[in-house]
Amino acid sequence: MQDRHILLIICGGIAAYKSLELIRCLRKDGAEVKAVLTAAGEKFVTPLSVSALTGNPINNALLDHEAEADFGHIELARWAELIVVAPATADFLSIMAQGQAPDLASAVLLAATCPVMCAPAMNVHMWQKPATQRNLAALVSDGVEMIGPEEGEMACGDFGPGRMCEPDVILQAICARSGVPATGLTAIVTAGPTRESIDPVRYLTNRSSGKQGIAIAAALAARGIRTKLILGPTEIVPPAHLQTISVTSAAEMHTAVHEALPADLFVACAAVADWRLAVPHEHKMKKRGREETFTLELHRNPDILASVAKLKGNRPRLVVGFAAETENLIGNARHKLASKACDWIVANDVGAASGTFGGAHNTVTILTDQKTEEWPTMTKQELARTLAGRIQSTLTDGRDQDQLDG
Ligand code: C5P
């Protein structure tokens, strides 16, 4: 991001406080940041905080005498190499979709020729309203890239999609969009749960959210690694710039992974169901008589990780598996490393007390043939970035898996 010109438009939403952190992250990455606050945005964060963090004066008025002498909105639009609207409120998305320009922020957008990204943030019902979805579709077809929103609890107490993505996630999307030089490396990442059909209305699945795997795919892509994300059914919307192949069952995931080969790297982060019905019932299964127990005959699913790690001709240079355990973490993980023939295992405790499944944090231990390395607790985004960095240096420096501590 060194010296990239990023213009940040901050609208009026409670998520605006996260935009201050986003400015810090962008500047830490070397970008030059200017910001425009809408009138509502100024009610949530002050121009003083924003200009202190960007290191640039802030000018929010469309018809400011001094700035407009230099055609302020045109100058800003020319200066920007990328415009990021975060938080993007329902109201501002509507203004953008209609091409209106009632204030400086919207006038700059209308005058801009650079790429535009929006991180929407609003109440779940505002997000789901057909009018908002129409505006969104119009903007996406105009080439505006949406980052999120995420699903979760809202400041107003509602739950659902509408939360602005965390600054880390927005930063990764920005890096990917700002043309990080391609490394020539390719990766396949599986993420999320799988869903195994029992009958037309029932299925077997697990509690995986897909958050960690999506973050890893995004972190690899942000490093210029061409990444395919093979994603099981989840509520989380992956970043639009990620090449995502959506699948439902383990068998579909297995096929999609093998079709996506060859690749330099395979990261198996998905929580693949171990079992499936050989043939799901065609019609909804009925209770028969008064029986108190019921038995389903389950068949073993293909082990996707092992099937890739044990390939003869097409094996990726680095194969990374995950071990989600609730007991004997290291012992089970070491056994998995050998039995699945992968190069690294990322072992994490997913016991109820850990809060890993669906949570924001993860504590992992990385195992190779030679080493066991405990990593401190990090957010899933931080873990993804750290792991992606380690993977890239292993693949590019030719360091092998027993030199993990480099
Ligand atoms: O055997 P277990 O499910 O504990 O192994 C976990 C690791 O194996 C994860 O990396 C997971 O993505 C992968 N896996 C797979 N296909 C399966 C089962 C697990 O790729 N059928």
Structure description:
The protein is of the alpha/beta class and 406 residues long. It has two domains: 5-177, Flavin prenyltransferase-like (Rossmann fold), CATH 3.40.50.1950; 186-278 and 295-403, CoaB-like (Rossmann fold), CATH 3.40.50. 35% of the residues lie in helices and 23% in strands. The protein has helices spanning 16-28, 41-44, 47-54, 65-69, 72-79, 90-97, 104-111, 124-128, 130-141, 167-177, 211-222, 250-260, 304-309, 329-340, 380-397; strands spanning 5-10, 32-37, 82-88, 116-120, 145-146, 150-153, 159-163, 186-191, 196-199, 202-204, 226-231, 243-246, 265-268, 275-277, 298-300, 318-325, 344-349, 361-362, 364-367, 372-374, 378-379. The strands form six sheets. An eight-stranded mixed sheet has the order 12-11-8-13-16-17-19-20, sandwiched between helices. Strands 2-1-3-4-5 form a five-stranded parallel sheet, with helices on both faces. A two-stranded antiparallel ribbon has the order 6-7. The two termini are 24 Å apart. It binds cytidine-5'-monophosphate. Cytidine-5'-monophosphate is lined by residues 190, 250, 268-270, 272, 301, 303-305, 321-323, 336.
